[in-house]
Write a structure and sequence with these properties.
Shape: elongated
Distance between the termini: 42 Å
Strand content: 5-15%
Largest sheet: 2 strands, antiparallel
Number of helices: 2
Structural class: alpha+beta
């Protein structure tokens, strides 16, 4: 099963890379992004769009980590309490 998951992941990354390359080819206008007094690289517009998409996905994932960790911690705490309760029930019987 791990092999199938890995093959699926590799094929998904390959398709995403190919789609990104095609997207960059269809948006070849050289663009320089500047902000906060900085001038960044001159890249095709498609490359800038893909970079900002990836940065946005990464930031969204990072910002969701605290809530996911809190939910996971609560679930583990509840599981421990249930196990403790089950052990107490079985020992009293």
């Amino acid at each position: 099963m791990k092999i199938i998951r890995r093959l699926f992941a590799v094929s998904l990354v390959t398709v995403a890379a190919a789609a990104s390359a095609v997207f960059v080819e269809f948006n070849p206008i050289e663009t320089q992004i500047s902000g906060l007094g900085l001038s960044f690289l001159i890249l095709p517009l498609g490359a800038w769009l893909i970079i900002f998409l990836l940065v946005g996905v990464l930031l969204g994932w990072l910002l969701s980590l605290p809530s996911v960790a809190r939910i996971s911690w609560r679930a583990q705490r509840s599981e421990r309490a249930l196990k403790k309760q089950a052990n107490e029930k079985s020992s009293t019987q």
